[in-house]
Amino acid sequence: xxxxxxxxRVTAFALIxxxxxSSLAAAPLLLSKEQAVVSALQQNPALNAxxxxxxxxxxxxxxxxxxxxxxxxxxxxxxxxxxxxxxYGYAVGFEQRFPVTNRLRLQKSIAQDEIELAExxxxxxxxxxxxxVETSVAAATAIRAQIELRDERLELNRKFxxxxxxxxxxxEVSSVQTNQVRIELYAVExxxxxxxxxxxxxxxxxxxxxxxxxxxxxxxxxxxxxPATQPQLAILTQESLMQHPEYRMKSLLYRMSDKRISVAKAxxxxxxxxxxxxxxxxxxxxxxxxxxxxFFGVGLSIPLPLLDRKExxxxxxxxxxxxxxYELDRVGLEVRSESHTQATRAVSLYQQAREYEGNLxxxxxxxxxxxxxxxxxxxxxxxxxxxxxxxxxxxxxAQLTKLHDFELAMIRWKAATGAxxxxxxxxxxxxxxx
Length: 434
Fold this sequence. Notes:
Blueprint: H1 4-26, E1 29-31, H2 33-43, H3 45-63, E2 71-78, E3 88-98, H4 103-168, H5 175-210, E4 218-220, H6 238-243, H7 245-266, E5 272-285, E6 289-301, H8 311-376, H9 382-417
């Protein structure tokens, strides 16, 4: 008989657990830029897949350069099928192949280089993933801030439109002017919708990067901050270039190509085989009849490089080596160019943003304060005040764009150099947040 009371308790407990898990799953995920990077480095599926290449390289290193297994041979022969005179023979042999070149040592060295190559590939993946996450966070932050500014403009334009409509009936303004305000209102609403769609796509992209669930709600706490002083961006030295993950990958591939050519040359001489065997034969020896003979011997097999001298493999290896040298030079040039360009761009954008903030932004704020005072004294009408306020919002939008561009330049500079940006660069004495 079913215990319905007990079943009801179990069902109720299951519902409570399910409700609790659903509420936990629905909790928004608060992320700063640094937290987003940490989450991506821990949960990004592509990065986790890339990390397995290191374990695979260690396995290959353990396997590389080993001797071939020895071979045990057993032979037996008898004349029972034919003469059936009682003759027979058997042999037991043990064969081992020995390398006569440094092929195995080179294979071990290449396998060790493959471990370093896998580590460099993972480091480069981390570099690119960090750049992608930071870029996505900056883009989402900029879009969100622009939406907030559009909301302020919409609220201002609605009040402006209501004011204009209230003055149409008394003839202070025309319906054409009112319609222009309404058109401006619709245009700002359209801009906000486009920004909202862009934010949705950017957040979806960021969820994939940080390994978050598709239904998770991301709330970014990141804000644009302009350093109080101009950042001092280090020049990419030759030593730093050698440690750059992408350059190191090409450098390791170039080094391995030289070793592979040496392996191809060494493979012209195959391993020699040494065989130790014992043999016993029982046969008819006239006139004595059946007799037994026993032998112990040593055999040697030496392959001769007459038909296959690995010329094609050596030529292909040298062509690959030249290609990798060109690739190494290309990466070095690109890394130096990108780091120099982004450093120059970041300094220029910083100066522009600081000048924009110090001059135009303060000028607009001062003008708006004076306009409010003048409106209170009856010196200007409400139309001029509304226009001044809208102009201030446009200036904030332009300043936001400059701050976003500056942060992007810093992100790209850090990724180009492969070096971390010190916290001192982002330490602020003055905050300018949107």
